[in-house]
Each structure stands twice: as structure tokens, then as C-alpha cells.
Amino acid sequence: MNLKIQIPDKLYKQAMVFANNNNFKIEDFINYQFIANLEGFLINQINERAKNVNREDFERILAKVPDVEPNECDRL
User: pTM of the entire structure?
Assistant: First the structure.
């Protein structure tokens, strides 16, 4: 998937300097930063949702999981 974004000139120039100094292509640098920030955002969301879960709810949900051997394709 291709995505076109607009970056302020000043920020783009700073990113270009950093990328060049570290032997990155600017596209790779921006992609890496985007992914790292998205992962951080998602982890924060998961942590916030986890605050609303208690042990009793966890045990109740876990009790619904069948106690059977995994399928062959799911074994480690």
C-alpha cells in the first residue's frame, strides 16, 4: 500500500539530515518511526483496557476454553 503524506519542510529537512547521517533512506526512516509510534499507541490502548479487567473476569473467561490437545498445526 502506498500512502502520500505531507510533512512540514523544517521537519522533513531534520529527518533527512538524521536519515543521511545514519545511512537510511528517508522513506525507511519515516516508515520505521511511524511503526514504532503506532506500536507504542497500541500498547497504551491495551494497557488501558487491561486496567478494567479483574482476576474473576479472567478466570470466568478462561473456564470457557476447552481442555483439549491443540490441533497438529497449532503445536509448537
Answer: 0.57
